[in-house]
Amino acid sequence: MNDVMKVIDNRCTIRAYKQKVLSQVEVNLIIHSAMRAPTAGNMMFYSILEVKDQKMKDRLVKTCDNQPHIAKAPLVLIFLADMQRWYDYYTLSNVPEMCAEKKIEYRTPDESDLLLACCDALIAAQNAVIAAESIGIGSCYIGDIIENIEIHREMFDLPVWVFPITMLCFGYPKQDISKRILIKRFPR
User: Fold this and answer.
1) How many domains does the chain have?
2) Is residue 23 domain-resident?
């Protein structure tokens, strides 16, 4: 088994973190790895929002089903399905006018684009998880970010075509996880 497979095979969710700030080099590596993820049509239908403000982290604890480890995580990233950037790019590039001139139908983002954007965001998030794990930084997915979508869209003042899809908490594990027994999965 190669090193990448070992990282994937041994990965487990971490909810208790050392009180150790991640270096900017580590944060950059995690975000860079996320941005190197495959993306539909190379359009990058996602954005990554870093939550640094402690009051926002504290509020996320409450809006995400009272999970206190969110407030204690040294790094919190929200992965957004972002079709707004596509719409803005097309608008700034005068694509609607070009389509009208060429008598081509111009369309705005729709449900299928949202699904692509969700996939892009989740693939990027998983790249971030594996990159962090490879340098000894643990992570925990927070799915509740999407359950209270209206609250979170308002909290972060998200544009009309931007949706929070998943949130990740990162930090150095508080306990030694080398002897942790991993939960068995369903058979293939």
Assistant:
1) 1
2) yes
**Tens of pLDDT, residues 76-118:** 999 999 999 888 988 999 999 999 999 999 988 888 889 999 9
The edge-to-edge listing of strands for the beta sheet with 46-50 is 46-50, 75-82, 162-171, 138-142
CATH for 135: 3.40.109.10
CB 172 within 8 A of CB 137: yes
- Domain assignment present for residue 188? The answer is no
Q: Which residues contact 180 (CB under 8 A, 6 or more apart)?
A: 12
Rounded-to-10 torsion of CA 40, 169, 28, 123: -10
Q: Is residue 181 part of a domain?
A: no
Residue 8 phi, psi dihedral angles, 5° rounding: -65, -45
Note whether 45 and 117 are within 8 A (CB).
Answer: yes
Is 82 a member of any domain? Answer: yes
Look up the domain containing 152 and give its range: 3-171
Encode pLDDT of 17-66 as tens digits: 999 999 999 999 999 999 999 998 888 999 999 999 999 999 999 999 99
Residue 160: other Cβ atoms inside 10 A: 10
Burial 56-76 (b: 16+ CB within 10 A, else e): ebebbeebbeebebbbbbbbb
CA–CA separation, 133 and 107 (whole Å): 40
Give the pLDDT confidence score for residue 55 in this predicted structure: 98
